[in-house]
């Protein structure tokens, strides 16, 4: 059984964790191109390197960040997301288009 | 929309758990089902101040619990998440007051643990040994003293386990998903049946 170190709960069986995708900078949804948005949502670079990923400890409902090597699968570091995200992300709603207004 | 008060009409709460199928009757480990007893949870950056202002003691660290007024267990599950569990069903008024008092406060969000979780209590010298059969976390007294919390998997079901002491007796409190409660009750009864 693999062991992962949860920053809140300590070392736990890997079966208690759920993968949540790579940590990536979100492009501005209002100004970016469809290609940029698709790359953010769907694509990831599949190379041998250390990746920063979201992981979820299911019994405690806790999201955190782990750094993992994609070849050895070794988990190098885990930490609370407050180390990377220290303010709430606000989503501005898209302005209504003229076409929609006339309907 | 008017929000529903989860603490309302506690007398109408029903537990669908069938306790008759149990190997615990002869076991040295005594178990009790506290599922219908009142409890409330809050999450948010304002909860610590809210509970303190209500005169409640709170654990200083995440994954710690303490006992208030002999039978109210206060669990701190993370920096900003707290659950209050009434194990003898004597603190309903306090829990209802807290739930109503939290309405409309900034950074205080009510959690739904009353109707989402089952709550079991286990007593007996061998309880930690019994848990070692079904849980990967070491719950022996030397490494899991009174007031510790483990949020982990018990018999393959997500659970919150804490060790507390009230009226001179130690016990384990277990909170787990309500939908799996019949399975978990029987699994733990089976695990406990060898400790006669």
Main sheet specs of chain B: 5 strands, antiparallel
Number of alpha- plus pi-helical segments of chain A? 2
- Main pleated-sheet profile of chain A: 4 strands, antiparallel
Number of strands of chain B: 10
CATH class value of chain B: Alpha Beta
Radius of gyration of chain B: 16 Å
Organism (chain B): Marinomonas foliarum
Protein name (chain B): N-methylglutamate dehydrogenase subunit D
GO molecular function, one term (chain A): sarcosine oxidase activity
Protein name (chain A): N-methylglutamate dehydrogenase subunit B
Structure write-up:
The complex is a heterodimer of chains A (103) and B (196). Chain A is mainly β and 103 residues long. Chain A contains two helices and six strands. Chain A has one domain (3-88): Folate-binding fold, CATH 3.30.2270.10. In chain A, the strands form two sheets. Chain A has a four-stranded antiparallel beta sheet with strand order 3-4-5-6, with no helix packed on it. In chain A, strands 1-2 form a two-stranded antiparallel ribbon. Chain B has 196 residues and is α+β, with helices and mostly antiparallel strands. Chain B has a single domain (20-192), classed as Probable tRNA modification gtpase trme, domain 1 (Gyrase A, domain 2, 2-Layer Sandwich), CATH 3.30.1360.120. Helices cover 20% and strands 32% of the residues of chain B. Chain B is built from five helices and ten strands. Chain B has helices spanning 47-53, 92-101, 113-116, 127-132, 181-192, and strands at residues 30-33, 39-43, 64-68, 72-78, 81-86, 109-111, 117-123, 149-154, 157-166, 169-177. In chain B, the strands form two sheets. In chain B, strands 1-7-10-9-8 form a five-stranded antiparallel beta sheet. In chain B, strands 3-4-5-2-6 form a five-stranded antiparallel beta sheet, with helices on one face. In chain B, a hairpin with a 2-residue loop joins β8 and β9. The radius of gyration of chain B is 16 Å and the shape is globular. At the A-B interface, loops of A face β8 and β9 of B.
